[in-house]
Automatic annotation (TrEMBL):
Localisation per UniProt entry: Cytoplasm
Family statement drawn from the similarity comment of this UniProt entry: Belongs to the zinc-containing alcohol dehydrogenase family. Quinone oxidoreductase subfamily.
Designated name of the protein: Zinc-type alcohol dehydrogenase-like protein
The keyword Nucleotide-binding belongs to this UniProt entry's keyword annotation: no
CDD domains referenced in this protein's UniProt entry, alphabetically: AL_MDR
Length: 340
């Protein structure tokens, strides 16, 4: 089958960094696995981080990709929730082969039914970011998904990217929070307002000072999607007593948790691959939340976050998207659809 893979970890400008390859089609699915025919994929920062230059080589092509939409073509004997012909979307498992291939095996417990109102490309923009945002808001920070925390304040740092785009909507439309988003360019400011942000501040400046300027010196929750190290002190200043901070961005050096002590504030990480990586007992929660997001899309409560689609799925187009993400100017999600 066709796929895009790598043998070496190289700068994206190098044409050998991602290659069109032919690999074996996966065997018949076992256990809870589905065999999915991939129709569209999306790219996330995790793809670029794993592909980034390092002293390592692969004897067989390594296939990346952790966002996909497609159709179930076979099911394992333990599958309970899907059948052949179902349209699905998912982010997959970082410990297994990725979605940049014509067919992929994926555990049904981390797969959702695709929104019926979206096409494959639009659906492929959503899984990884939706899982990340949902888990960060409702699992890690404990915000009520039933609106019981309505009116509380949430700061989203780096809100114009893929995770921020859906997190803004979940926080506003599902949790009924007051959402303050950060963005630094006119186009990103416009985008986060479209996603539902109540107010917008500039993360190029000190976040705590920006909040004071809009008469909101402290917020109940902070979701950090950009430069945890850079914003740590400002976040510690801005978080309300007994508030919660969650980040998805690894630090370059240890952060001073002591800054949160007097406020009894908490900090947590969100890594959406945790459940699949460790086969946690609640793995199926990812299926559940993806189905809730799909329902929200179909009911018009939530909107898609795809900004652009390229065709076909190829090494050349994937290199373009990796380079775009590495530029730091991405808004929403860029998707690839179809195979030559």
């Amino acid at each position: 089958m066709k796929a895009v893979g790598l043998y070496q970890y190289l700068p994206i400008e190098n044409e050998q960094s991602l290659l069109d390859v032919i690999i074996d089609k996966p065997e018949a699915p076992q256990g809870h696995d589905l065999l999915v025919e991939i129709k569209a994929i999306s790219v996330n920062p995790v793809d670029t981080k794993i592909r980034a230059p390092k002293e390592q080589t692969e004897t067989a092509p390594r296939v990346l990709g952790w966002d996909a939409a497609g159709e179930v073509v076979a099911t394992g004997p333990d599958v309970e929730h899907y059948k052949v012909g179902d349209r699905v979307y998912y982010a997959g498992d970082i410990t297994r082969a990725g979605s940049n291939s014509e067919f992929q095996l994926v555990d049904e417990r981390i797969v959702g039914k695709m929104p019926s109102s979206l096409d494959f490309a639009q659906a492929a923009a959503l899984p990884l970011t939706s899982i990340t945002a949902w888990e960060a808001l409702f699992d890690r920070m404990g915000i009520s998904a039933e609106g019981l925390d309505a009116g509380k304040s949430l700061l989203i740092i780096g809100a114009a990217g893929g995770v921020g785009s859906i997190a803004t909507q979940l926080a506003k439309q599902i949790a009924k929070l007051n959402v303050i988003a950060t963005a630094s360019r006119p186009d990103t400011v416009d985008w986060v307002k479209t996603m539902g942000a109540d107010q917008v501040i500039n993360h190029r400046n000190a976040i705590d000072e920006e909040l004071k300027a809009i008469n909101t010196p402290q917020v109940d929750y902070i979701l950090c999607l950009n430069a945890t190290d850079q914003h740590w002190s400002a976040m510690a200043n801005a978080i309300a007593p007994q508030g919660h901070i969650c980040s998805i961005v690894e630090t370059e050096q240890p952060v001073n948790l002591g800054l949160l002590k007097s406020k009894s504030a908490s900090f947590s990480w969100e890594f959406m691959f945790t459940r699949a990586m460790f086969q946690t007992a609640d793995m199926i929660e990812q299926q559940t939340l993806l189905n809730k997001v799909a329902d929200g899309i179909d009911l018009g409560i939530l909107q898609g976050t795809m900004k652009e689609v390229l065709m076909p799925i190829s090494a050349e187009n994937l290199r373009k998207i990796h380079a775009f993400l590495e530029s730091g100017h991405a808004i929403g999600k860029v998707v690839l659809a179809g195979w030559d």
